């Protein structure tokens, strides 16, 4: 009995020792701040702290990939104050975002992100001259010939907050302009959790140039010199920065918040449309994000148009999704738009005619100049919320903001051309487009060869229900959260865009300088969507005449 008691006491002591060792290990690993140690200690993997330097990883990756010496990170990259920061061993210290912006300016809450979670995700934001962004906001009254854009620049680019009623519910809806994405994206970037002021630590470099707002001032009644001035000046400025030399701009990205055709003027004639932002040599290296990309070019990527919905937290997203699931939709399909008589192959007239003939099955909202209801969020969202399917034919270009407004309303989009969504928003929409949308060939609608109503009615109810659920799940992915806050467990359109950019830049970094699209850019859409040039399923949609139909040469 006595020996048993001794054994029992020994076991208790062993458990106590084990527990004490565990507590000490936990405190060393997670509680103590090892970042206060000297830079020499931080430049190596630390067993005690479990932290490591992202720059060391980059160097190791570069060595493994056999990257040429000319691709090594330039040593004279500057911090945001213009001084070259170096440690005693010649290396520049990492400054994680928590040291740069210790507290969220809006909430006052700490936003520090552990270094380990930011490895490979650091972004450096260029401090470009204010004439390229802030000054444009100050001149908001002159940004558009017909609209005072000042009302849309408030609330960090979201516009005026919409009333909380039976259409918008109790969530965050704003009267957001379709061309205000540059401002929204820039303000969201200010809240990004892995910013750094050390460009040598960055995986990508963001250029906050408001290219769309800049060119919009000169799209009508101007000469090519006025339209090209901003593009030429920003590229000149970028090339003078040490950051450009590292990858010659291949790690740089910017958001141009209009369609790509506004930046692809091919001739220097005053009568030609747009500027040549995306045709200049520097643009070939950068990643340029637009609300519509060119299927025939590989250096621009489409990201969603801004919608009216800008949630401040996960709860608002879930609340809105549940509301869209429960809605009773009285119309089979609907269309909001106007005919395009000046575009010969446009199918909008046929679509509007079929909708009117479908009587109670279809609801038509005509966009007329006088009292245009399509510019009023409540009319549009009410229409989309009452429809099972929403028709999204091409208009002046392939894509429409209406696509994303309808998705936010839980309405299944119906496309008539693959360039309206499928080959555009590769980072945001499922590759299996049949899960969330319907594709009706535009050639079938032309001449009323196909009945849209018949095509939609033959879809089984179970499949329609599954598609509606898939659309509802897409809502956060095509929405830009309120820049004054952030989502907690959900990824919004901004998050998916940044992820896509970082993956692209890393791929370019591994490939080295010879990383341009290999092959005929005429088929870059096919390589991007199908992953091969062999699939010819959609070739007839993308013949050169299709491009000329919308935007000439």
From TrEMBL:
Localization annotation: Golgi apparatus membrane
Major place of residence: Golgi
Pfam families with a match to the protein in the record: Exostosin_GT47
Domain annotation Exostosin GT47: ranges: 118-447
Domain of life, per lineage: Eukaryota
InterPro entries for the chain: Exostosin (IPR004263), Exostosin_GT47 (IPR040911)
Protein name: Exostosin GT47 domain-containing protein
Native source organism of the sequence: Rhododendron griersonianum
């Amino acid at each position: 009995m006595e020996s048993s008691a001794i054994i029992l006491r020994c076991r208790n002591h062993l458990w106590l020792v084990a527990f004490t060792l565990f507590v000490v290990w936990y405190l060393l690993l997670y509680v103590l701040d090892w970042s206060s140690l000297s830079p020499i200690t931080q430049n190596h993997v630390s067993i005690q702290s479990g932290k490591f330097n992202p720059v060391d990883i980059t160097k190791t990756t570069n060595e493994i990939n056999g990257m040429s010496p000319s691709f090594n990170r330039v040593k004279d990259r500057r911090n945001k104050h213009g001084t070259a920061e170096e440690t005693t061993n010649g290396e520049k210290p990492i400054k994680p975002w928590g040291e740069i912006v210790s507290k969220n300016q809006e909430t006052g809450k700490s936003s520090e992100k552990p270094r380990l979670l930011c490895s490979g995700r650091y972004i450096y934001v260029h401090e470009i001259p204010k004439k390229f962004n802030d000054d444009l906001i100050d001149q908001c009254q002159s940004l558009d010939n017909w609209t005072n854009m000042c009302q849309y620049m408030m609330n960090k680019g979201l516009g005026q907050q919409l009333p909380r009623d039976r259409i918008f519910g109790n969530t965050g809806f704003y009267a957001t302009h379709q061309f205000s994405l540059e401002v929204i994206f820039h303000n969201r970037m200010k809240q990004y959790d892995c910013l750094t002021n050390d460009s040598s630590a960055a995986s990508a470099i963001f250029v906050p140039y408001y290219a769309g707002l800049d060119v919009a001032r000169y799209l009508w009644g101007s000469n090519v010199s006025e339209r090209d001035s901003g593009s030429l000046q920003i590229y000149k400025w970028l090339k003078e920065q040490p950051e450009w030399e590292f990858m010659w701009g291949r790690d740089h990205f910017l958001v141009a918040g209009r369609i790509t055709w506004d930046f692809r003027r091919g001739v220097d004639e005053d009568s030609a449309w747009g500027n040549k932002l995306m045709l200049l040599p520097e643009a070939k290296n950068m990643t340029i994000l637009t609300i519509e990309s060119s299927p025939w070019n590989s250096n621009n990527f489409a990201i969603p148009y801004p919608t009216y919905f800008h949630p401040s937290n996960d709860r608002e997203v879930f609340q809105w999704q549940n509301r869209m699931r429960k809605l009773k939709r009285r119309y089979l399909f609907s269309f909001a738009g106007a005919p395009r008589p000046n575009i010969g192959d446009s199918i909008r007239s046929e679509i509007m005619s079929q909708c009117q003939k479908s009587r109670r099955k279809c609801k038509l909202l005509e966009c007329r100049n006088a009292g245009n209801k399509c510019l009023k969020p409540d009319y549009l969202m009410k229409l989309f919320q009452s429809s099972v399917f929403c028709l999204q034919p091409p208009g002046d270009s392939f894509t429409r903001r209406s696509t994303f407004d309808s998705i936010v309303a839980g309405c299944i989009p119906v496309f008539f051309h693959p360039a309206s969504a499928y080959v555009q928003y590769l980072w945001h929409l499922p590759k299996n487009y049949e899960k969330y949308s319907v594709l009706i060939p535009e050639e079938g609608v032309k001449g009323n060869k196909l009945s849209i109503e018949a095509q939609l009615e033959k879809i089984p109810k179970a499949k329609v229900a599954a598609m509606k659920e898939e659309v509802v799940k897409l809502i956060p992915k095509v929405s830009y959260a309120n820049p004054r806050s952030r989502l907690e467990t959900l990824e919004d359109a901004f998050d998916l865009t940044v992820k896509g950019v970082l993956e692209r830049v890393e791929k370019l970094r591994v490939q080295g300088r010879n990383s341009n699209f290999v092959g005929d850019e005429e088929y870059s859409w096919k390589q991007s969507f199908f992953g091969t040039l062999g699939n010819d399923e959609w070739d007839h949609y993308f013949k050169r005449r299709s491009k000329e139909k919308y935007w000439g040469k």
